[in-house]
């Protein structure tokens, strides 16, 4: 199960930390990801974490601004978002899938939490 939280209304340039409570993994090898969906657009991957290696990957638009990190002891995954822009406005989802590589597209995630809305506006 996945449960995301932490969204809200922020101004351009602000930071926001999204949290996702995770549980119920049946495999030691899994991938956790953050995916977003802006109004009228398809879902796009933001960042992912691979449990087997601890490796993380960010989308080009997120690199240098967003960081995904995992707290295994607390069963949480986070997305730290800095220097937010209006185009970052979207519903953000956490998602997971068994495996050891980040999926090429969000459609390969098979478990989803409810989304949390992030609005970046002045």
List the topology elements.
Blueprint: E1 2-5, E2 8-10, E3 16-22, E4 30-37, E5 44-50, E6 56-58, E7 66-71, E8 76-81, E9 90-98, E10 111-112, E11 116-120
Parallel strand pairs: 2-11
Antiparallel strand pairs: 1-3, 3-8, 4-5, 4-9, 5-6, 7-8, 9-10, 9-11
Describe the structure in brief.
The chain is mainly beta and 122 residues long. It has strands at residues 2-5, 8-10, 16-22, 30-37, 44-50, 56-58, 66-71, 76-81, 90-98, 111-112, 116-120.
Structure description:
Strands 2, 4, 5, 6, 9, 10 and 11 form a seven-stranded mixed β-sheet that branches. Strands 1-3-8-7 form a four-stranded antiparallel β-sheet, with no helix packed on it. The protein has 122 residues and is mainly β. A hairpin with a 4-residue loop joins strand 7 and strand 8. The model has no long low-confidence stretch (mean pLDDT 94). It has strands at residues 2-5, 8-10, 16-22, 30-37, 44-50, 56-58, 66-71, 76-81, 90-98, 111-112, 116-120. It is built from no helices and eleven strands. The chain is 0% helix and 49% strand.
